[in-house]
Amino acid sequence: MKLAFLCPDLVDAPHGGIPTVSRQILRQLERIAAERRVPLEYDVWALHDAPHDARDVAREVGLQKPPQCFLSFGGSRLGMLAAAARERSDADLVFTTHIGLGPVARLLRARNVPVVQFLHGVECWRPLPAHQRVGIWGTNLLISNSAFTLGRFLDWNPEHRSTPSKVCWLGLSNDRATRDIAPPPEDAGLSALIVGRIHPEERYKGHAELISIWNHVRRQCPGARLDIVGDGAARPAYEAQAKRLGLLENGAVRFWGRIPDDELRALYQRTTVFAMPSRGEGFGLVYLEANAAGVPCIGSLDDAAREVIVDGETGLSVRYGDHEGLARALVELFSDAAFRTRLGRAARARVLASFTEDHFGARIWDALAELHPRAFAASTV
Question: Which GO molecular function annotations are given, in alphabetical order (predicted)?
Answer without folding.
Answer: glycosyltransferase activity
